[in-house]
Every structure is written in C-alpha cells, then in structure tokens.
User: Which sequence fits this backbone?
C-alpha cells in the first residue's frame, strides 16, 4: 500500500565542537507526504536539514535517497539529485535582482550571453505559479523587506524540478496571506507526489499542513506520530519535556502617562501616522507585509528619512537623526532581520549583546571598553533570555536560529531602555521560550517601561498587548483596546487600506 | 585549553608557521640570513611596508580598499622635499605632511560616504592623480639634500635599532590598542561585518569610514617621512606597487576583503613574511623577474591555505 520512501535518514548524528547537535536520528519520507519536524530551539532541526542538503557531512549515520545510499558533498550535489531546500536563514545575493537570484547558476543564455528577456519572463512565470505574482522580478533584493525576501527564497526552491522539498521555518517572516498561499502550493506539490519536510514553531501550521509529525529534543527523536492522532498539548509537552499551559500573559500593569508620540509621520512608505505609547503599557502593531509596521519603528528611531511629521518624547519634540540619538534618549529598536540587520556574524555572543550599549557610553571609559563588565552584563542577559550556547565566546553564527533571536533581544534589553520597539521579537523562537519572552515583555511593562512590538502572529498580539494598532498601506487603520482586541477586528482592519479612523473599545 | 584551541587554529598562527618555515629555509640555504645585521635589516625594510599595511588593515576591516597608498607616499615625499628646499622648517614640514595625509583620508571618506562612490574606484582615481601630481611637482626628477634633522626619522639609529623600526613598532602598538580595546575599534569591525546592523545599533558608520581612510592617509604620510629620510631623496617613482604589497600583507595576515575580520598582529606577520621572502631571494641571488613570480606564488599559497580552512564544508 505505502509507496517506498523517497528519502530516509539512518542513525544520523552530527557533532560540533562542544555540542551534539543531532543524535542518532532516523526518519523516512514517502512521496506525496508532508512530514512535520518540530522541537525546541537548538533541538537539531536545521542541522538535520543541512545534513540532508549536503551543507556538512554527518559525523555518523547515512542518508538514503530513492533507495540508494547517498553522500552529498555540497548543496549543489543535493540540488542536482532533486532535493531543494529553503534554509532558515536567507541566502539571497542582495545586490542582484529577484530573477537573477531565482536562476542563479543557471541563467538562461543565448549565444553565450544572458538572455535577459527570457530570464525575466521565466521568473515572472515561476513567481506567478508560486502565487507571488505581486513580486517584481526586476526588483533588487537588498531593497525588499525581509518577508518578500523569504517569499523569493521559497520561489527559488520551487523553481527546481525537485523530488523532495525541505522547508526550514519558511513562514517566520510571512503574514497570513503569504502563508495561505504557500500551503496551497504545498498541497499541489503533494498531489504531484513530492515528498516534503516542514519545520516550524507555529504548531497551527504543523496541524494544518502535515501528515505526520516528528518531534526532536536535544538532538534526539522523542516520538513520531500521525498528525491526526496528535494534539497541540501533546506535541508541546513532548517537545519541551513538560506541560505548558496558558502561554499568553498580560502582567499586572496599569498604563501610565504617554511617553512617546508620533504626529503625522510620513515618508516614502508611511502616510500621516499618529501613534503613541504610554509608560507601563504593551502596544502591539499588527499588519501584513508592506503595511509599514517595520518602517514606523525605524522612522521613530531615526533610521529612515522623514518627509514630515514629528516624534515627541514625554511631550518634547525629538526627531532623532540617527538610532544613536534615540538610544541615548532611551528608545531602542530591535530589527526583525537578525542576519541582515541585527547580528554581527563572526563575532561572539557577548560582543553582539553590548554593541548598542557601547554607543551610548556604557561599559566604556574615555572610549576604552570595560570588557569584564561587558561580559558580566552579557552573561546576565543571556541567562535571562535563556540563550543556549556552549559559552559566551561562541560566535553567533554557530547558534540555532531561535538562540540568535534571543541574543538580539538581549542586545536591546541590556540597555534598560524606557521605550523598547521590538520587531517580531519571537521570530523563530520555540513555544516554551516564547512564554518566557511574553512574561519578560509583561514584566518590562510592570516596571513602567513602554513596550511596542510588531508581530505577524495574531494570537500573540491578542494575547499580550494592552492596546493594538492595525496597519495597512503605510497607515494606521485602527486602534483597538479592551474587548475590541479580537481576531475578527484585527483581521478586518489590517486588510483595510483606507483609514476608517476606527477606534474601538 | 579553550584559549589554545583558538590560538592554534587562528589565521595568525598559520601565517606565523609559514613565516618560520620560510625563515628556516633561508637559514639553511644562506649563511648570511640569520645574522643579527641581516635580521635587523629585514625589520628595517619591513617598517615602511608595515606602516602602510597598518593603515590598510583599518580600511580592509571595513570591507574597503585603498589603492592610492603608493602614489600618496610618493606625492607626500616630493611635497616634503620641495618644502624643505623652500626653507620651511623641519617641524613645520612634518606637521604639514601629516595634515596632508589627513586631507587625503578626508577626501576619500567624503567621496565614499557622502557621494556614495565605491572605495575601489575613488582610491584608484587618487592613485593616478597623486602619481601625476608627483611627476608634475618634481618635474620627473629626484630631489636630494635634506637637513639631518629630517633624515633622522628614516636613517637615524637609537643604539642598534633604527628609528624607522621604532616608529613602526610604536605605530603598530597604538593601532593594536585602538582596534582591540576601544569602542571605535569595535565599531570598525562592526561596520565591516554588517553595515546595516551597525547603523541600527547606533554606530555612526560614516564617522567610522572617515576615520579608517584618515588613518590610511596618515600612515602614508608617516611612511613617506621614513622613506624620504632613509633614501635621503624624494623620487617621483618611489613606492610603486606598494599598495599591492600592503594588501597582500593584510590578507596573508588573516583579514578578509569582505570586512570584519583581521588583526594588526596578523598584518605584521604578513609584512614580515613578505619582507623575509624579498630578503632571502636577494641573498640567494634569485633573478628579479623570478622574485616577482615567487612572491606572488607564496602569497597565493598563504591565502589558499586560509581559505580552505575556512570553507563551510569543512566545518
Ligand atoms: N556550525 C555550527 N557550529 C557549532 N555548533 C552548531 C553549528 N550549527 C548548529 N550548532 C549547534 O547545534 C545545535 C542544534 O542547532 P540547530 O540549528 O540544528 O537547531 P534548531 O533545532 O534548528 O533550532 P531553532 O529552532 O532555534 O532554529 C545547537 O546547540 C547549535 O548551537
Ligand atoms: Mg533552526
């Protein structure tokens, strides 16, 4: 009845200096099947993807593909054999166009020269087939927001004529419509007999799209079962090794006076944005890709050139010219794009965490760094955020995606800011660690801080925010408080492109 | 134990081994190589290259490049010579020379940050312009005859050690401290590692870029001072091709042209390696054309070993 597996791993093990990333993992994937792979941050999911994809060789164990033992020596080998992968971190070449990225290494040629007309035509076709007709194949990747980059990465993986597709957290920067779209494509490919492995921390996605779910913990297989027989509680408890209830958390704060306000903020994306946050308040911003949510946070700290409008901090006009001005005034922004805009790869955890602090005169005397103090603070915040790593000196490159995200948060929080602007703070973070971060956000507000967070996850916005702004087309479309913060309202307003001036309570 | 692992697997250590290996080879093949006189001579020869390469290290750490260094050294040298002949006092000549170095750096910094030009192009243009001006000002002729107080910086001795070597080592020490122990040093690595993240982390990236090109300009000015003093002459064709030796030394020392990676120690070892090779080949009477080829081959090997080691597949 069951067809032969297209891909199998047998006792796969990977040891990095100081860590056993993957320990004796065996799994099999049949054609036409979607296998979900879940586990905490650092459980070994990405390592498994990279071993299959030929990024590095396994320490022990083997891989069988279409019935034969294979040893891919490079990602290209795996790709040539028909295994296409969307990696967790983006790998696009930023100064090239979308089309060039999709067809990198196999640009269509005519008489030895690149056939540009055909390149763009083909790229357009692939984007359309992937349900991304809105993306311009001529756009330069560097200028695209991270969510669109992630879509391009997916389109690129789909463009190969593959037998097996591996997705490592493909939706971490996507919003509702793109996710729906991706699922439609996956279902189509599934019908065509493609085998798919799907890694995600969003369990709702796992339950929607997968047939079986394979759970990893500390590099080992805990259990594998048909998705239909699993429940969310069960998966979480097996993943984390304990029960977790009630993961959203609002804390006990009462919002105080207004701390930060924007008036009529406009730039190339934003249109007349009026926004405010109070002390001891958690404000959520929800919007789809291109809604201007990231741009708003960046504009506040002076990382974008404003056309008009002003920013007021405790009633005084500030109009920061540079993120350093904002940081000095106690306003810190943390970017959603950890590899592109937040972390310094090739540098250890502790240096990454103190970069902003050094700019505002902390941990330094007359321009000389006070390393011992820096390390102490970095150790404290790494611990607070639960960064799992062999040591503070580990390069951030060697951390799992979720742990990199925690380093980003530590880097912002170490400054003890009064106003903290977090862009997708839980991106790539596992269910258990999310709870800790929600608690932390609530605690910050309890201490009187003004917290603003942008999120693509509806439940998180609804569960954690005291007040919610919805954005669309560079405008704020609604401000919701109290019982008005519900799924129906948020979704309604984030699709609205004309301002309703809607405030609901 | 941890320290040892990182020490022995570092790029610097591998280049250091290469330096020892090449040194051992010349020690066996030439009786003169290991004499105190010759070793001091290598150090002296390397000091001018070293000063320039230190400036280049700062620039390359930010993922930039400065192709103008050789020409700027020559121009500075000729300008100083003309000023001395015009009767400007030595202290003023040295001061104006340093200001000139700063000015070159500011020009580069401005073109790169404010106009948005690529470092490669800007400094390539300066390379041609500076060499051209050198020829114009000197009329293509070598200029001799300077006051002894001026030549002290290139030809003077303090005990057995040349003043040039002392200047080089002090300069290296300052550079090392700046890169290792200051916020500015940390910011230089950050700018090279991830420009966008640097700006969002509150680093004034433009200032950092100005700074590194000014350091490179000052390095050229100092190198010109030492070179002119040592030769006792300002030659319009001086320091030809120094940019390539400087870049090679920095890369051999473990820096990456992509930025964010490299150290002063590494650069110094790189400079010494090139210096030892030049010196040894002279001792062995290798014909000049072959010298050029062999030097290129060694540079290739050194960088190749490092690249192979850093390939992600070997992780
Ligand atoms: N190149 C590397 N060098 C050293 N250690 C590594 C390397 N890559 C991963 N690790 C370690 O291996 C472990 C597994 O990491 P992996 O990236 O597979 O986790 P993950 O399950 O994908 O986590 P996440 O959900 O956070 O993405 C982690 O402890 C990580 O620190
Ligand atoms: Mg991962």
Assistant:
């Amino acid at each position: 009845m069951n067809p032969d597996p297209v891909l199998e791993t047998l006792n796969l093990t990977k040891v990095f200096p100081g860590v056993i990333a993957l320990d004796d993992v065996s799994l099999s994937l049949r054609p036409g099947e979607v296998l979900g792979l879940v586990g905490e941050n650092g459980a070994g999911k990405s390592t498994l993807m990279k071993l299959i994809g030929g990024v590095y060789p396994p320490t022990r164990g083997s891989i069988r593909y279409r019935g034969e033992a294979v040893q891919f020596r490079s990602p290209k080998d795996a790709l040539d054999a028909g295994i296409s992968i969307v990696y967790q971190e983006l790998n696009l070449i930023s100064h090239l166009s979308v089309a060039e990225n999709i067809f990198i290494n196999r640009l269509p040629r005519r008489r030895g020269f690149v056939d540009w007309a055909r390149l763009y035509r083909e790229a357009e076709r692939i984007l359309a087939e992937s349900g991304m007709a809105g993306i311009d194949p001529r756009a330069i990747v560097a200028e695209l927001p991270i969510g669109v980059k992630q879509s391009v990465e997916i389109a690129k993986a789909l463009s190969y004529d593959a037998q097996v597709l591996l997705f490592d957290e493909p939706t971490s920067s996507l919003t509702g419509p793109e996710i729906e779209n991706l699922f439609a494509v996956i279902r189509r490919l599934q019908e065509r007999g493609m085998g798919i492995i799907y890694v995600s921390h969003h369990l709702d996605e796992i339950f929607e799209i997968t047939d079986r779910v394979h759970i990893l913990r500390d590099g080992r297989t805990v259990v594998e079962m048909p998705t239909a027989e699993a429940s969310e509680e069960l998966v979480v408890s097996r993943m984390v090794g304990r029960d977790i209830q009630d993961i959203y958390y609002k804390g006990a704060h009462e919002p105080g006076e207004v701390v930060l306000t924007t008036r009529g903020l406009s730039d190339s994306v934003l249109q007349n944005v009026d926004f405010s946050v109070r002390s001891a308040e958690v404000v959520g911003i929800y919007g789809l890709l291109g809604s201007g949510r990231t741009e708003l946070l960046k504009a506040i700290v002076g990382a974008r050139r404003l056309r008009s409008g002003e920013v007021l901090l405790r009633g005084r006009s500030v109009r920061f010219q540079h993120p350093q001005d904002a940081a000095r005034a106690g306003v810190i922004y943390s970017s959603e794009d950890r590899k592109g805009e937040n972390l310094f790869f090739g540098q250890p955890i502790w240096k990454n965490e103190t970069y902003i602090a050094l700019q505002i005169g902390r941990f330094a005397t007359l321009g000389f760094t006070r390393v011992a103090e820096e390390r102490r603070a970095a150790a404290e915040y790494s611990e607070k955020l639960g960064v799992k790593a062999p040591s503070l000196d580990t390069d951030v490159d060697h951390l799992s995606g979720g742990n990199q995200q925690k380093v980003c948060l530590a880097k912002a929080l170490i400054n003890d800011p009064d106003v903290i602007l977090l862009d997708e703070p839980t991106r790539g973070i596992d269910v258990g660690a999310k709870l800790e971060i929600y608690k932390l956000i609530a605690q910050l507000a309890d201490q009187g801080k003004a917290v603003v967070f942008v999120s693509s996850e509806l439940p998180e916005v609804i569960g954690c925010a005291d007040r919610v702004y919805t954005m669309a087309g560079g405008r704020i479309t609604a401000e919701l408080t109290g019982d008005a913060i519900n799924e129906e309202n948020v979704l309604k307003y984030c699709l609205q492109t004309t301002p309703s001036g809607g405030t609901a309570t | 134990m941890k320290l040892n692992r990182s020490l022995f697997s570092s790029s610097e250590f591998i280049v250091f081994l290469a330096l020892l290996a090449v040194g051992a080879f010349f020690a066996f093949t030439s009786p003169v190589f290991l004499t105190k006189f010759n070793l001091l001579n290598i150090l002296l020869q390397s000091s001018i290259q070293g000063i320039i390469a230190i400036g280049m290290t700062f620039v390359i750490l930010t993922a930039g490049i400065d192709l103008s260094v050789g020409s700027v050294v020559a121009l500075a040298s000729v300008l100083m010579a003309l000023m001395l002949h015009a009767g400007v006092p030595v202290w003023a000549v040295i001061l104006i020379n340093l200001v000139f170095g700063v000015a070159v750096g500011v020009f580069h910094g401005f073109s790169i940050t404010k106009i948005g030009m690529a470092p490669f192009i800007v400094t390539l243009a300066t390379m041609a312009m500076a060499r051209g001006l050198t020829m114009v000002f000197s009329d293509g002729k070598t200029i001799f005859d300077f006051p002894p107080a001026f030549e002290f910086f290139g030809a003077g001795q303090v005990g057995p050690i040349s003043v040039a070597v002392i200047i080089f080592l002090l300069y290296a020490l300052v550079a090392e401290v700046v890169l290792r122990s200051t916020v500015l040093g940390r910011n230089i690595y950050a700018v090279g590692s991830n420009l966008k993240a640097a700006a969002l982390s509150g680093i004034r990236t433009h200032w950092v870029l100005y700074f590194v090109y000014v350091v490179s300009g000052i390095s050229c000015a100092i190198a010109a001072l030492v070179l002119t003093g040592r030769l006792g002459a300002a030659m319009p064709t001086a320091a030809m091709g120094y940019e390539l030796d400087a870049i090679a030394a920095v890369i051999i020392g473990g820096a990456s042209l992509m930025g964010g990676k490299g150290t002063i120690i590494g650069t110094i070892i790189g400079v010494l390696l090139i210096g030892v090779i030049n010196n040894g080949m002279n001792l062995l009477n290798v014909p000049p054309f072959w010298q050029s080829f062999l030097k290129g081959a060694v540079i290739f090997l050194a960088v190749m070993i490092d690249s192979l080691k850093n390939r992600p597949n070997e992780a």
